[in-house]
Amino acid sequence: MHDANPSHPDLQATAKEVMQQRGFQPEFPSQALQQVAELKNHPPKVGPTSDIRDLRNLLWSSIDNDTSRDLDQIEVAESLPNGDVKIMIGIADVDAFVPKNTAIDQHAARETTTVYAGVRNFPMLPEELSTGLTSLLENQDCLSVVIEFVVDPSGSLKSPSVYRAVVRNKAQLQYNSSGVWLEGKSAAPPKIASSSDLQAQLKLQEEVAQKLRNQRFQHGALTLESDELQPLMLNGQVVDVVKQQKNLATELIEDFMVAANGVVARMLEDVSSMRRIVRTPKRWDRIVQLAATKGDKLPAQPDSKALNDFLLRRQAADPDHFADLSLAVIKLIGPGEYVLERPGEVAPGHFGLAVQDYTHSTAPNRRFVDMVTQRLIKATLAAQKNPYSDAELTAIAANCTQKEDAAKKVERDMAKRLAAIAMQHRIGEVFDAIVTGATEHGTFVRVSQPRLEGLLAQGAQGLDVGDKLRVKLIRTDVQKGYIDFARA
Question: What global pTM score does this model have?
Answer without folding.
Answer: 0.86
